[in-house]
Amino acid sequence: MQAAPYILIVGAGFAGSVVARELADAGRHVHVIDKRPHIAGNAYDELDTHGILVHRYGPHIFHTSGERIFEYLSRFTEWRPYEHRVRGIVGGKSYPFPINRDTLNQLYGLDLDEAGAAAFFEQVREPRDPVLSSEDVVLNSVGRDLYEKFFLNYTRKQWGLDPSRLKAGVAARIPVRTNTDDRYFTDTFQAMPLHGYTKMFESMLDHPNISVELGVDFADVRVNIKASHIVYTGPIDAYFNHCHGHLPYRSLRFEHEHLPNVEQYQETGTINYPNDHAYTRITEFKHLTGQKHKGTSIVREYPQAEGDPYYPVPRAENEALFKRYEDLSMKESNVTFVGRLAQYRYYNMDQVVGAALAAAKRLTG
């Protein structure tokens, strides 16, 4: 550990690394620890044994409409333009997802124009008022048949819960379109770090005021910390030793596979399997990176309850439990809590960067 005064940052993912760089640029001495043997958090990527760049913790597709966020990260990486596309397998056939006009025409054998697609949705939707759950969101938008074909079983696999038991915001993240735009995201800036996320993080943490120590669990060293301030990006309930009980998080198991002499395994970067198999989706990394290779590498995602925390589970009772921990965090004047796990929010990457920049500004202000 460094000699005081220094600021300790727990976690070398987006939240921790952005705060570290901002504080270092402001002249503060920063020590970053992470219990994993690498930086970049869940965005960590590396060459697999076959030389293909893969995301170890599932696909991370960068997209934002925040010019400030994109320009900030552009200090640490060049970009490869990339617009993510997803297909959903229903009844053994592949359809554009999120649902758009082409999905309707292909699924139902129709020939709808944009106005016809809007009229179709209006005819099949089941109005819900108030809209409280994810089930309400989807039924209110596209009706029961599309709900059951594309959303119901996928959600059950992903969250281990029926959509009726999840807050509306989960499904509200997925648009429904009357046009033929088959991009998964419509943000202004859509790109992948040209040389990968890990290289971007290496650049971000490359500063004389930043030291990094990996393979260090905060729980093992917290009694010996002499830092003037702590920036904590781990699960907030773990910081307080789960004194109010465990906050529910959803985890994932990743099954990586290399396919030799297969140049392209699937038509788009990600294919969803809402109704078949124990996994939710398969991602082929060469779509994301543009890498040329005679083989290809894919990953299957299996949601599970146990394991590293990835997603806060958005339910009202979980939010109430988080508020109890948040009240405790307000009394920790020398600790800043920031990030998806520390703030128990279903942040996208750009939202984490925004939250981290805001936190750093408060600390340096």
TrEMBL record:
EC number: 5.4.99.9
Keyword terms: FAD, Flavoprotein, Isomerase
GO molecular function: UDP-galactopyranose mutase activity
Signal peptide range in chain numbering: none
Record-linked SUPFAM superfamilies: FAD-linked reductases, C-terminal domain, Nucleotide-binding domain
Cofactors: FAD
Domain UDP-galactopyranose mutase C-terminal: 149-346
Family the entry assigns: Belongs to the UDP-galactopyranose/dTDP-fucopyranose mutase family.
Name assigned to this protein: UDP-galactopyranose mutase
